[in-house]
Amino acid sequence: xxxxxxxxxxxxxxxxxxxxxxxxxxxxxxxxxxxxxxxxxxxxxxxxxxxxxxxxxxxxxxxxxxxxxxxxxxxxxxxxxxxxxxxxxxxxxxxxxxxxxxxxxxxxxxxxxxxxxxxxxxxxxxxxxxxxxxxxxxxxxxxxxxxxxxxxxxxxxxxxxxxxxxxxxxxxxxxxxxxxxxxxxxxxxxxxxxxxxxxx
Length: 200
Hints:
This protein has helices at 3-29, 43-50, 56-62, 65-69, 71-76, 78-99, 122-152, 177-197, and strands at 32-35, 38-41. It is mainly alpha-helical. It has one domain (31-197). It has a two-stranded antiparallel sheet. β1 (32-35) and β2 (38-41) form a beta hairpin. It is globular.
């Protein structure tokens, strides 16, 4: 990997660490901890949050009628999301051991923690759980696809691609015929060491 690319990846990691530090500061500011993946607010904070809760009736009254009509379209997506979750889980369960790479831990991607916010009503909590599940499934599946791509075809595209996954930066350059065979094996070895070494 060229030094310039390695430097960029190190800077990305430093930025991720900075984001985590900022999140830790917010945890202190809003006085909660995370214990065994569960959010725990201090008792007086929960009481204060409840003062800002908008009841379900008032919430629905403030919602535009046309917005309510979109609900079946939004919630109808749950079927393909659950199927995608199931198919991707089975796929990695069957294929990843054969490839010698670690499985993606689903629990690292799907968080349903917003239900602990006392200032949300029941419908808002349901909506938040749905969004957390949907986006979590997509991130989970993206990591499964990224590991698959790194194993089978770790080549950058000829043109700029929007929304690439985190593994893409280390992929081989488009058109590098000479470096492909060795580079592909190196990336496979790196993937195996990284995912199995972490126990993912």
